[in-house]
């Protein structure tokens, strides 16, 4: 849930780290800090607040000299955001400094042990035990000390450690939290995620659990916990650096929404027209497991897969699934969906499924991420780096991936004739240009947002797959605008929630499914007659909706399964403009982080 970075080279390290942390700020942004080894001592500067508070304090990094350093941007788990709780944490009168992403589960036991050994704790964090334990173990060899840490620490960690007497070394190790090392010429970089190092190098090591790295200017050596040398392939990153920058847009979120047509085209092209995904064993049941927006894609996936492939689908939030001993049939396929590929609950659910013998498939955006590597198969969404905490283009490509999974399953079952495969393929390839049509109308959505941005409560309603989209519309709005919003199946309102409808309550109604249109229309009339203000989203020929709506957004016609992709873009734009008009920090909403690597 935090971002960690490190640099060792010939440049001044602090300005490099500030830039790298900026590109990781999506992982957490309640406090930040750096520790720089000047050659004589370790200077630590850390502060509560976003990275720019730290950057100002150290003049963009120029005020702290040294060419070996580690840095951190935090999303608080243990202890509130404060100067003291910010990383790096130090020990032994400042001779050791540590940054950490993850959670140490046995920190209380370790803290008791270290207090008895005379260590004094000043923060509320779990990480401080690592600093003191590192100091306790350190006998002049960073590598041996790090190996000992791996034997003692329980929980998740990506760690970087420096010692005052080793200005030419950084040690790093990980377990269940991501870590990469960027390989430069006479300089090397460490980070939680690839975008942080992209301005400097495209050659990276993706570090696996319990791999220990000793990073020097001239090279990086990797070891297992027995301190035996290991060889590793260098991963070449072929993304465009600009993909992780704002490119003239006010926010990453709007830039990422505007990238949806290309992202969907990239995702769809890898399979449609290429004979779809090969399915060796047809599942008798599918369990989709994910969190947040990825879970919402799973709910849409249930409708899509059951409709197209006629295979029963269960959908669970990962935090529930991992503990519920879900029933697995002889041939259950567990599909985990994750943008980051690092979400702790989703990863745990994947591991639990594998442990119980299920086949697993992941739909993941971040190439080389843990979930992508650990699932039996991976279907990549080619959305490119997504920086805004609220997911948009990744969600839209996940939906596209689910369409392709459903079509691949149908084909493997012999239920997809060549004519139908061609038809669906053509419809999928039309999606980018249809989404462009929505994007061309973004000012209309902005006008709607300016009419409704003061709403206090918003209901999103729909039936069938429109209900799945309602879930995402409500999540998107609440997470960045802080407006209370709920999604309900349209037919469910009358069983309770309708009592909340009063004069002026905003209801966003999705009625894109022809078969269910009349039914949803009736539900819209029910809320309208109780004073609701209704914004409807329907296909272009359904003009009768105007009688019972205050505003209508018409979608261009496509196959009923794929209208969801068009509706998604509208809901994302609506949430974006509402949040922006409310003056919120759209890309970094309060209390959130992009990658949730804690349970
Ligand atoms: O990286 P993942 O897709 O596994 O992340 C899951 C959720 O944390 C994520 O979708 C979250 O709900 C976003 N803030 C939604 O915009």
Task: Walk me through what this model shows.
By secondary structure, this protein is an alpha/beta fold. The protein has three domains: 3-238, 4-Layer Sandwich (Glutamine Phosphoribosylpyrophosphate, subunit 1, domain 1); 243-439, 3-Layer(aba) Sandwich (Rossmann fold), CATH 3.40.50; 441-585, Rossmann fold (3-Layer(aba) Sandwich). Helices cover 34% and strands 23% of the residues. The chain contains 17 helices and 25 strands. The longest helix has 23 residues, at 418-440. The mean pLDDT is 94.
Output mean pLDDT.
94
Outline the low-pLDDT stretches.
none
- Hetero groups bound? 5-amino-5-deoxy-1-O-phosphono-D-mannitol
Largest sheet: 8 strands, antiparallel
Q: What would you call the quaternary organization? A: single chain
Structure summary, number of beta strands = 25
Any idea of the CATH topology of the largest domain? Answer: Glutamine Phosphoribosylpyrophosphate, subunit 1, domain 1
Helix fraction bin: 25-40%
Output the CATH homologous superfamily of the largest domain.
Aminohydrolase, N-terminal nucleophile (Ntn) domain
């Amino acid at each position: 849930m935090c971002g960690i970075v490190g640099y060792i080279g010939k440049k001044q390290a602090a300005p490099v780290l500030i830039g790298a942390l900026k590109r990781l700020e999506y992982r957490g942004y309640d406090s930040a800090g750096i520790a720089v080894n000047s050659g004589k001592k370790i200077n630590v500067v850390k502060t509560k607040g976003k990275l720019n508070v730290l950057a100002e304090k150290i003049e963009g990094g120029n005020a702290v000299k040294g060419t070996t350093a580690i840095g951190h941007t935090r999303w608080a788990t243990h202890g509130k955001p404060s100067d003291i709780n910010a990383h790096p944490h130090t020990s032994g009168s400042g001779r050791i400094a540590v940054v950490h992403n993850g959670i140490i589960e046995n920190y209380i036991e370790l803290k008791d042990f270290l207090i008895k050994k005379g260590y004094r704790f000043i923060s509320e964090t779990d990480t401080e035990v690592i600093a003191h334990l590192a100091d306790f173990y350190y006998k002049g060899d960073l590598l041996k000390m790090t190996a000992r840490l791996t034997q003692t620490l329980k929980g998740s960690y990506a760690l970087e450690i420096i010692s005052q007497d080793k200005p030419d070394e950084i040690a790093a190790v990980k377990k269940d939290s991501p870590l990469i090392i960027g390989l430069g010429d006479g300089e090397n970089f460490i980070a939680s995620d690839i975008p942080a190092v992209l301005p400097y190098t495209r050659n990276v090591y993706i570090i696996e659990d319990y791999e220990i790295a000793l990073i020097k200017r001239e090279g990086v050596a990797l070891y297992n916990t027995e301190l035996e040398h290991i060889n590793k392939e260098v991963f070449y990153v072929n993304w465009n650096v600009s993909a992780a920058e704002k490119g003239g847009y006010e926010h990453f979120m709007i830039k990422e929404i505007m990238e949806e047509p290309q992202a969907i085209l990239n995702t769809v092209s890898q399979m449609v027209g290429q004979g779809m995904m090969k399915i060796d064993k047809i599942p008798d049941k599918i369990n989709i497991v994910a969190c947040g927006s990825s879970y919402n894609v799973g709910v849409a996936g249930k409708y899509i897969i059951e409709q197209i492939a006629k295979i029963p689908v269960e959908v669970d939030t990962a935090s529930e699934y991992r503990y519920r001993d879900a029933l697995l049939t002889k041939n259950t396929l567990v599909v985990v969906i994750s943008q980051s590929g690092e979400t702790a609950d989703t990863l745990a659910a994947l591991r639990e499924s594998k442990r119980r013998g299920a086949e697993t498939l992941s739909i993941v955006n971040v190439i080389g991420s843990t979930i992508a590597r650990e699932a039996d198969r991976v279907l990549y969404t080619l959305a490119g780096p997504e920086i805004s905490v609220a997911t948009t283009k990744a969600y839209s490509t996940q939906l596209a991936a689910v369409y392709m999974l459903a079509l691949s399953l149908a084909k493997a079952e012999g239920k997809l004739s060549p004519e139908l495969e061609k038809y669906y393929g053509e419809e999928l390839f039309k999606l980018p240009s249809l989404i462009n049509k929505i994007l061309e109308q973004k000012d209309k959505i902005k006008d709607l947002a300016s009419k409704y941005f003061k709403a206090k409560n918003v209901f999103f309603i729909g039936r069938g797959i429109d209900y799945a989209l309602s879930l995402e519309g409500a999540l998107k709005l609440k997470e960045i605008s802080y407006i209370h919003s709920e999604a309900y199946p349209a037919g469910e309102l009358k069983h309770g929630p309708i009592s909340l409808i009063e004069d002026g309550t905003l209801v966003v109604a999705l009625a894109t499914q022809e078969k269910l249109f009349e039914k949803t229309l009736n539900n819209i009339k029910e809320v309208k007659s109780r004073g609701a203000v209704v914004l409807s989203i329907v296909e272009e020929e359904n003009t009768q909706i105007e009688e019972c709506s205050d505003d209508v957004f018409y979608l261009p016609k496509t196959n009923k399964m794929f209208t969801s992709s068009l509706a998604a873009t509208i809901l994302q734009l609506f949430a974006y403009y509402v949040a922006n008009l409310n003056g919120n920090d759209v890309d970094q909403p309060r209390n959130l982080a992009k990658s949730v690597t804690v349970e």
